[in-house]
Amino acid sequence: MLAVLLLAAGAAVAAQQAAYAVFDAPLVNVSLFVMSRCPDARICETVFEEVFKLDHMMDKVNLNIDYLGHIDKKAPYGVECMHGDLECAGNAHQLCLQAHVPLDKFYPTLSCMNYANFPGAIGTIALTHKCAHTAGIDWWRSGVGACIEGKRAERVSRLAEREAWLTGTEVELPLVLSEEEMDEWADADALEPLAKEAQKRLVQSVRHTIKEGVTKSCTIRIASTLKHSPRECVVDGGVWKGCDDGHSPADFARVIRAEWANLHK
Ligand SMILES: *[C@@H]1O[C@H](CO)[C@@H](O)[C@H](O)[C@H]1NC(C)=O
User: Fold this and answer.
1) Whose CA is nearest to atom 4 of ligand 1?
2) What is the mean pLDDT of residues 50-62?
3) Domains present along the chain, CATH in parentheses
4) How far apart are CA 28 and CA 47, in angstroms?
5) Which atom of ligand 1 is nearest to 263's Cα?
6) CA–CA separation, 129 vs 134, rounded Å?
7) pTM, whole model, 2 decimals?
């Protein structure tokens, strides 16, 4: 009996290792350093939206987006952001998405947040929720909801769902706001609560950006095994700087393909 169990366990471990081997295939590290309500960040993110539409690009990249700010224990979310607390919230929401959903769900959500009347309602839960839903993310099941709104909010919501199911009534859907209503809400700058996990991710990300010595949003870094230093590029005031390899989606794709090929030769 024990032997059978051990055998089964061994098979399970082997299967898991095989699965990890696939994920462990080296990917090209691409880092964007941004601020969620910064127009220059939007330029970088829009270029990468095009990069990721190209053949198999998503499978070759390990994308990390980190945020610029100053650590400030007295700030509502523990960080001071250039475009205000709403931006801090937007950064934190995007970090929760990155942490809990795969790239092919995260990126469409990010693009959706950037798409509206920029910076519009970026940083409001209403917009993040709407965009996540549009990208096919289950708010609670993915872990994104708890990261942003907390476990308590999740329990309340699940209880309401269960209650509705038991009594055969309709679940009361969260109020769906129009784009204009969301923008107005953002303008009012009423701070929404941000759960512990989201705040922790925000502080960690800002610390990482400081440690990396990045001071401009947007900064793009592509880790290189072909060159001695990372390939770095900045968009500052709408102007691209330092992109030795070009800054069109095709240029970034070419660089990523070359780096990927070098990791897999
Ligand atoms: C990518 O980044 C991770 C984490 O920093 C690191 O462990 C890994 O070696 C990097 N891979 C490449 C190919 O640069």
Assistant:
1) 29
2) 95
3) 26-68+214-265 (3.40.30.10), 83-198 (no CATH)
4) 17
5) 13
6) 9
7) 0.88
